[in-house]
Amino acid sequence: MTHRRSEERVATDPAFQLEDEEWQRRLTPARYEVLRHGATEPAWSGEYVHVDDAGTFRCAGCGTALFSTDAKFESGTGWPSFDRAVAAGTVAEHVDRSFGMTRTEITCARCGGHLGHVFPDGPTETGLRYCVNSLSLTFEEDGAADPGHPDPEPGSDARAPASAPPER
Hints:
Layout: H1 20-26, H2 29-37, E1 55-59, E2 65-68, E3 72-73, E4 81-82, E5 91-96, E6 103-108, E7 114-119, E8 129-132, E9 137-141
Antiparallel strand pairs: 1-2, 1-9, 3-4, 4-8, 5-6, 6-7, 7-8
């Protein structure tokens, strides 16, 4: 995996302003490296590059709904690609000047977890390509109850409890 995170992203939800040790306890080592340290999984290695079922992609750190299969397309890059987030405000953008180039990093607006990058070369009317690490996501098929994410609080689109069990 390639690492690049040099600064911390702050969670907007106080329930996810966690100490590093707590993130390590909650996440697998690979997910921890991607979400908390900005690592990038190797191209074509992620489980969500090809998804045929309809559903929602959620942040693997906090359970927030981020992307829908309606917005997913095959980009040929080796990472899941989407043309838009599921709702405004769920994905935050930050300038990334690592590796001698300027890109736009995307993070989960709720927990600050690194997702990937967004590029202005998408094939749809949005013109965007959200290039996302599979390790930063979970997938919930439409109509499938996800026992790891109970029903949200009224008015909330995020479904992870503040004290989610460890993923290991």
